[in-house]
Structure to design on (796 residues):
């Protein structure tokens, strides 16, 4: 269409204005190249987006495939005889004795009962690996809750050990020569026998959500790190949100524009770009070494992360305040409102959706952070679920990092499953930010 | 308006509540705090978990800070804000022992818990390597004696394993290993590289004349791409070996055990790394695993004595104990017995 109009104008031009027609000639010649350039640019854009989308898809698909099995757990049905002799218990055992009792011995006996032919020491050892090391703790909890179980035979479902559950899930390649395989031929025969007897069952993995960290993949859960993350983020939110909003309001609405406020503004922007590990070092020096706060505690983690998120929230809050049209301020002032009233009755409520979006994005960033926590001792093996801000705790991304580093194969799927949980929380947080914006955003 | 003015109140209330909590938390700690080596971490955590489950005490908190970093935290002083135990994949250094003493940490209980083998493995689809430590040194050092003859040191010219030793396969030298910050790398350099270094006559002579230079030659790994640093994660190295059958990887024995269906260890000086060969010392690349306890903290922080007893029980560090299930190589029977007794008596160490 452009071509047509150009041609028609060039025809309409009288012969004496040759200069103009020269120019249009040039324009027309270059036109093809310019369109091609635009097309190329669009093509590059599409390629870039497709590439990044496919990378994202590969990432998410591979994590999901690897992580999904972790939400299921395999259990073995056993009749465990809890006689006082096997458990090493005397008469009238107290709680301490019950805690120390030899539950593993009882489990081993019941496994041997299932396979009376197993006599050799090496074979016995291979058989014992069917039940996870954590199985004894399940029994312990049962007996401690009800000591009258001692002397009885109880039927329990205990978690299957790492290698056996790997085999049951098809992770073990049986074509590999036996010598090289962790799961041997006799173990396969036994477990198939148990499977045929309906003694093996796969259930939803409640342990994964109800327990803290563990060195046994079957017993490891994310509750500890999830609570650690929640406590840490709570501190971050409580500290950084009010401070950041107050700073933004003062700088945007009240502060005089002079050299000092310029310096402050430049520094806030610089702080947003400081690598997070630096905040960790600062936290170690100030909060732990100077104020003597405990190491590995969510309160210190929260303090460090709020230092990190403050600039992000301040910058987005200022942008939100700036986008409120001056006419609102003028109208309120014209009706006799004080400056403070203008800000708190009109400007701030209108800017709130933008501020909240910025806050949530800052929080999401803080949730995924590990580097600053390394310095303050939150990268640690912590089994107990934290309940207070001073309890030792770790956070989700740290838990992922630690599981990825352990030799047991069961931790591979645990790692991916924890990544899925973390991604889920992040997506939920971002979705809330989008919803808030959609619901309250106003266009002028 | 009301919503906003509520924030300062929340902050003040929260601060009050938590500062009161913090002061009590600082004055008494009821949980053992452990720092130190990432090599000992997988073993210490098992014991800690077992201890937490079977005693009245909380599960100890274990930070993986590396041997050096742990020692620094440990030696900072006596008191609840300092860790009680540090793990180490090497013995405490004289300098560290002295800095400990300067800060009042004079009575330290040393516990040697066992050994960890370091393997040089490749994919099971590839040919098995039979190496000597000399081969390892010649293949990986930055500077080696001139292959054309003479005592002159030259930039490592070897491109293929067969250049180093005609009996080795004709494939490019490609070794994936941990970065210099890792304890595994330190041990590998000290035991494999330096071990091989000593068998090269011209360099062994250097040890007497210029020990500084000797160390530099033996401990420096080539930087021309034949040695690839893969980060601290041993699982990652195993994955890379699976994908690239021509490469060798350096990692700990416990990872080899868990991945015996994917990778195979090279023989070194004629020995395959197994429980037995590492325990009796015939497999040359293995390192001791230690932990150090502050005697002053025993009785102050509840449970340290019981934790020591659990760690040094036959059920844990014995030949059939649960630590060997995780890939730790146990000490010899008599040594175990002797040190368990001295640890139970809280005998402190001396630096000689």
């Amino acid at each position: 269409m452009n071509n047509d109009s150009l041609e028609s104008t060039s025809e309409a031009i009288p012969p004496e204005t040759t200069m103009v027609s020269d120019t249009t000639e040039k324009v027309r010649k270059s036109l093809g190249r310019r369109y091609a350039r635009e097309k190329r640019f669009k093509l590059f854009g599409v390629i870039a987006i497709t590439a990044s989308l496919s990378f994202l898809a590969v990432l998410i698909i591979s994590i999901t495939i690897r992580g999904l099995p972790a939400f299921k757990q395999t259990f073995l049905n056993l009749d465990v005889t809890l006689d006082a002799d096997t458990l090493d218990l005397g008469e009238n055992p107290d709680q301490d004795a019950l805690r120390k009792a030899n539950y593993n011995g009882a489990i081993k006996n019941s496994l041997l009962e299932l396979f009376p032919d197993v006599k050799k020491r090496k074979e016995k050892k291979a058989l014992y690996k069917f039940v996870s090391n954590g199985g004894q703790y399940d029994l312990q909890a049962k007996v401690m809750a009800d000591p009258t179980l001692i002397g009885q035979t109880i039927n329990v479902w205990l978690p299957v050990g790492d290698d056996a559950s790997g085999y049951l899930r098809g992770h073990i390649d049986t074509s590999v020569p036996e010598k090289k395989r962790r799961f041997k031929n006799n173990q396969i025969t036994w477990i198939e026998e148990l499977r045929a007897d309906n003694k093996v069952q796969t259930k939803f993995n409640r342990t994964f959500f109800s327990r803290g960290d563990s060195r046994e993949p079957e017993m490891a859960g994310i509750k500890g790190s999830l609570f650690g993350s929640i406590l840490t983020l709570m501190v971050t939110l409580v500290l950084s949100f009010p401070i950041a909003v107050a700073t933004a309001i003062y700088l945007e609405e009240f502060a005089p524009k002079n050299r000092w406020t310029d310096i402050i503004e430049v520094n806030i922007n610089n702080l947003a770009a400081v690598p997070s590990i630096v905040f960790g070092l600062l936290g170690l020096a100030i909060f732990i070494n100077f104020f003597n706060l405990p190491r590995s505690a969510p309160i210190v983690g929260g303090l460090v992360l709020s230092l990190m998120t403050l600039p992000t929230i301040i910058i987005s809050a200022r942008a939100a305040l700036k986008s409120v049209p001056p006419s609102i301020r003028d109208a309120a002032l014209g009706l006799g409102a004080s400056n403070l009233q203008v800000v708190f009755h009109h400007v701030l409520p209108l800017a709130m959706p933008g501020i909240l979006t910025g806050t949530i994005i800052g929080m999401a960033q803080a949730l995924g952070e590990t580097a600053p926590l390394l310095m303050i001792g939150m990268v640690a093996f912590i089994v107990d679920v934290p309940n207070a801000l001073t309890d030792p705790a770790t956070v989700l991304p740290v838990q992922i990092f630690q599981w990825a580093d352990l030799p047991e194969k069961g931790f591979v799927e645990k790692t991916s499953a924890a990544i899925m949980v973390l991604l889920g929380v992040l997506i939920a947080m971002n979705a809330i930010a989008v919803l808030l914006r959609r619901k309250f955003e106003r266009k002028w | 308006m009301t919503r906003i003015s509520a924030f300062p109140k929340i902050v003040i209330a929260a601060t009050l509540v938590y500062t009161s909590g913090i002061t009590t938390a600082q004055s008494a700690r009821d949980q053992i705090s452990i720092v130190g080596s990432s090599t000992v971490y997988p073993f210490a955590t098992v014991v800690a978990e077992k201890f937490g489950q079977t005693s009245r005490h909380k599960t100890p908190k274990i930070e993986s800070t590396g041997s050096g970093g742990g020692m620094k935290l440990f030696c900072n002083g006596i008191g609840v804000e300092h860790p009680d135990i540090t793990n180490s994949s090497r013995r405490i250094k004289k300098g560290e022992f002295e800095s400990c003493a300067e800060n009042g940490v004079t009575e330290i209980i040393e516990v040697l818990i066992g050994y960890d083998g370091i393997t040089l493995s490749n994919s099971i689809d590839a040919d098995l390597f039979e190496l000597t430590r000399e081969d390892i040194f010649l293949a990986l050092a930055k500077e080696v004696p001139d292959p054309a003859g003479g005592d002159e040191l030259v930039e490592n010219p070897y491109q293929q394993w067969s250049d180093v030793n005609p009996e080795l396969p004709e494939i490019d030298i490609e070794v994936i290993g941990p970065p210099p910050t890792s304890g595994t790398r330190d041990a590998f350099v000290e035991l494999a590289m330096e071990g091989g270094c000593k068998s090269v006559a011209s360099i062994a002579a250097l040890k007497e004349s210029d020990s500084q230079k000797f160390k530099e030659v033996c401990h420096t790994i080539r930087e021309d791409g034949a040695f690839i640093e893969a980060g601290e994660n041993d699982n990652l190295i195993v994955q890379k070996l699976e994908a690239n059958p021509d490469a060798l990887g350096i990692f700990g024995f416990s990872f080899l055990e868990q991945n015996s269906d994917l990778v195979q260890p090279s023989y070194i000086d004629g020995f395959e790394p197994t429980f037995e060969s590492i325990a009796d010392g015939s497999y040359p690349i293995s390192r001791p695993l230690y932990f150090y306890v502050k005697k002053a903290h025993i009785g102050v922080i509840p449970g340290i004595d019981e934790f020591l007893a659990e760690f040094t029980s036959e059920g844990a560090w014995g030949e059939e104990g649960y630590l060997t299930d995780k890939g730790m190589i146990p000490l010899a029977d008599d040594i175990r017995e002797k040190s368990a007794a001295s640890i139970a008596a809280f005998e402190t160490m001396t630096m000689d």
